[in-house]
Specification:
Blueprint lengths: L10 H6 L1 E3 L12 H20 L10 H10 L6 E5 L1 H10 L9 E4 L4 E5 L2 H6 L4 H14 L5 E5 L11 E3 L4 E3 L2 E3 L9 H19 L22 E5 L5 E5 L3 H13 L3 H7 L4 H14 L3 H6 L6 H25 L10
Parallel strand pairs: 1-5, 2-4
Antiparallel strand pairs: 3-4, 5-6, 7-8, 9-10
Helix pairs in contact: 3-6, 6-7, 7-8, 8-12, 9-10
Bound molecules: zinc ion.
């Protein structure tokens, strides 16, 4: 069990995070917006309780170190469960999500972090420290203080998960926004990049693994991706070195941070303030005029996003190197001109 519990969240507090964006006229089905909000909050609260019942498997995992890093990067403590693969599947079922291949998830609607403790990937990656990295990645996602927006379909029946939609033009979670009518959210490359940047820093600074868990990713000395590497078993059962989806974006952020020492603190600030979010956009555009929008439109769920990410990394690297060369102190200009 975790030695300290996160803040309790009751139905009223959950309700306060919910904006009701009704599709259609709620009054026709006898719902006021407040009633709809309470019904959704009750549903989410019982899902939350269902997940929190599952036991956290923290043996051998240094949660004190994890929370010390979380505090250092200014992220409030949330409920976190490290679950066996079976319990992880149960948790997804409780909140109505399909099984995926991911190592963890931040559930913004229920405001909980769940991490899958898979013995095989732990063994491939040298032990429980690997799980700490996964926890840091999801903690980074959770440190987003903006409201969750839920659209409610008018219905008199008990609101089930299938009737609750994250939606609307004002939906935002970190860098990710979801617009009504758009199949995929926008900004996932930036969001995954931020979470992976924090995991990469934890792996290097706290775990002392500059080459990550998987070792060399590119046949290149000091590859900028090594710190994000991990070992996975591919479809043919072969163990290969792989990266999480956010790695190219994280590498872009680290590259910019080398030239702009305030960049990472600005990224962290953007979890809490709109001002910070604007500042991130401004600093990205200072590298290249439309870089922010260029990164925002990359969706990490697609195959080509990975290659696109590497291309962006190369482009940013070239721009910054050219700038460093032109800004380097030159020899004395000839006098008397
Ligand atoms: Zn992620």
């Amino acid at each position: 069990m975790s030695e300290q519990r996160g803040a309790e969240l009751d139905t009223d507090q959950l309700a306060a995070k919910i904006h009701v964006v009704a599709k259609g006229d709620l009054s026709k089905v006898g719902y006021t917006k407040d009633e709809a909000r309470s019904a959704v909050a009750e549903g989410l609260h019982s899902q939350r309780e269902g997940v929190l019942q599952l036991p956290s498997q923290e043996d051998g995992i240094n949660m004190t170190r994890v929370h010390a890093y979380r505090e250092r990067i200014g992220i409030p403590r949330k409920e976190l469960r490290i679950l066996s693969p079976d319990d992880y599947a149960k948790a997804l079922e409780v909140v109505g999500l399909k099984r995926g291949t991911e190592g963890g998830k931040y559930l913004p609607q229920q405001d909980i972090i769940i991490i899958k403790r898979d013995p095989e990937s732990e063994e491939l990656n040298g032990g429980p420290e690997f799980v700490e990295g996964l926890a840091i990645h999801e903690i980074a996602h959770s440190g987003n203080e903006r409201s969750v927006v839920v659209a409610v379909k008018p219905t008199r029946r008990l609101l089930r998960k299938s009737e609750i939609e994250i939606a609307s033009t004002i939906g935002r979670s970190g860098f990710v926004t979801t617009k009504e009518g758009e199949a995929e959210p926008t900004g996932s490359f930036l969001e995954e990049g931020y979470a992976e940047l924090e995991r990469g820093r934890y792996v290097v600074e706290e775990l002392g693994k500059p080459d990550g868990f998987g070792g060399q990713f590119l046949p290149d000395r000091a590859s900028p991706f090594d710190q994000y590497s991990q070992r996975v078993r591919n479809n043919e059962g072969k163990v290969v070195v792989s990266l999480l989806e956010g790695a190219p974006a994280a590498a872009v952020f680290e590259l910019i941070a080398k030239h702009d020492p305030e960049f990472v603190s600005t990224l962290r600030e953007s979890r809490h303030s709109v001002q910070g979010l604007r500042e991130v956009a401004r600093r990205l555009n200072a590298v290249s005029p439309s870089l922010y929008m260029e990164l925002r439109r990359i969706n990490v769920k697609t195959e080509e996003s990975y290659r696109e990410g590497i291309q962006v990394f190369k482009k940013v690297k070239n721009i910054l190197e050219a700038r460093a060369t032109s800004e380097a102190p030159k020899s004395e200009p000839p006098k008397g001109e």
